[in-house]
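Notes to self after the Tuesday call (sharing in case useful).
The group wants a holo model before anyone commits to mutagenesis around the pocket. I volunteered. Ligand is copper (II) ion. Logging inputs and output together so the record is complete.
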Amino acid sequence: MTVRAATQADGGIPAPEPVHPLQRLSADEIRLARTVLAEHGLVGEHTRLTYLGLEEPPKSEVLGFRPGDPVDRRVRAILLDAGSGAATDVVASLTRNAVDSTTALDAARDGQPPVMLEDLEAVDEIVKGDSGWRAAMARRGVTDLDLVRPCPLSAGSFGVPGEEGRRMLRVLSFVQHHEKDHPWAHPVDGLVAYVDLIERRVVELVDAALLPIPQEAGNFDDPAEVGPARTTLRPIEISQPEGPSFTVDGDEVSWEGWRLRIGFDAREGLTLHQISLWDRPVVYRASIAEMVVPYADPSPARFWQNYFDAGEYLLGQQVNSLMLGCDCLGEIRYFDVVLPTQDGEPREVADAVCVHEEDVGVAWKHTDLFTGSAETRRQRRLVISTFVAIGNYDYGFYWYLYLDGTIELEIKATGVMFTSSYVEGSRWATQVAPGLGAPYHQHFFSARLDMTVDGVDNAVDEVELERLPAGPDNPYGNAFTRRVTRLGRESEGARTADASTGRAWHVVNPAKSNRFGQPVAYALYPQGAPLLAADEGASISRRAAFATRHLWVTRYDPAQRYAAGDLPNQHPGGAGLPAYAAADRDIDGRDIVLWHTFGMTHFPRTEDWPVMPVAHCGFTLRPVGFFDRNPILDLPR
Ligand SMILES: [Cu+2]
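Result:
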């Protein structure tokens, strides 16, 4: 059936025919969203759509959807009046041409709308127009301002009275020696401009230290600097003469029993929906719900460095077009992505999501002593990936689905490290070039895993190794067993990993059993890397509380989407997971969501300069008692 928007005024745009309630917003729908908002008086001369995304229907509606059912296409928009700083959170229906809710945001309490692309230009103009900043730069010997690159860095929230409710960025600058010179090699340290984006002026200049600007270039893309490319690598060609084994139908991908829907959001980037295996649901929705990169340097020019790359910088907006033969090898299917601009226009990024199939070595193997049988089968995985570039860093998000039911997320962190002046003996940075420091920092990701293991109602068992002392039932002292603890109400649901006991979290369906009467399960295996290192009383510990635990389990609530809350930009803290968990709801045999914190603590290596070889982190989900036996015995020889 065709559902059209009520509005057809001034050649208004008809809503396209919806195929599925989770179908990604089309270019026409983005234009229509702006029209609907404008017709309801929500778009003025200075209005920016800092975020616009599909407002997904509640899970029960999506699961109950049958092809041909009517769909109410709704969007959520975070509007900012760039003239006054007023912000509004709006939900509107494109189908009904109606505004369903508008919430005026109180920046001091709710946080600020995200940083915008245009803020890069704004801070450039603002700091270069400030005489105090120019004088401070001149004291550092920098007078050619055309070669200075000020960075729009999120301000955080430190309870400073004049800063509350003020839309701000903090600006550190870098210098280029020429137009193609990478500025990250030449940080101007000890000088930060605090910029008010609404008043468009520098409100405070922190000139804390006069430090030399490192001079050695870091131009990894300049053959004159890195020397000629090696000629010893012969071609590797990946050929699938009969084409790949997966099929794509719109946003739906099917492969070897797996079926899922691909989504893409301006904030979360790539999202996966309704992942099922042999028609058994496993995950309803998987996404990166937040990211944060806190830095360790306590100096006056740097103590505030904490970037929420998803909630503050909208990682989906920073997505790259991928290149065949460089980013992806083999038989590739690409998905284009349509994103909203801050004016509410559609912007297409071609080839933003890559889907392909990979051989990954041996799946199983045995050579038998007695029968002489020698059998080997090859493992494959379906790779769904995307890359974003957020300022200096680049992150790849690689979801893998394996033939044996394993789901894995691998993050590839690369790009250029954020730099400082290196002060001899520093406890907060590695020297990576003469006088150039790469400050210590951490990268945290919050994966939101809305699980549906064989159905909506699930529970979580914490499963780990239990060592047993020698005693009457362990006379030789060799015994060990498995300790299983069902997670209870949410206050107890925030857990830390423990590598010493191999702690894992089994998402079970208590109502569905395998042939041995055990509840079917998918286990989350964490890497268990260090958590947030900042002091408990630090601002970042309140604002990124999600990163103080490896696992949170909450009851499904369609309004609870982001690990650090809806608007982490300049948010004072406490939003997101700590607030969700405070409701203390029952999570045993209910519709639950897992939030998994993982990441890496990065003590930069000299080898990470001037561009960083990919570093990896992630997690794995594997079936445990989900199948009655090895599900890939039928792989061909
Ligand atoms: Cu790093």
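Two things stood out.
DSSP finds eight helices and 30 strands in the chain.
Residues 1-12 have pLDDT under 50 and may be disordered.
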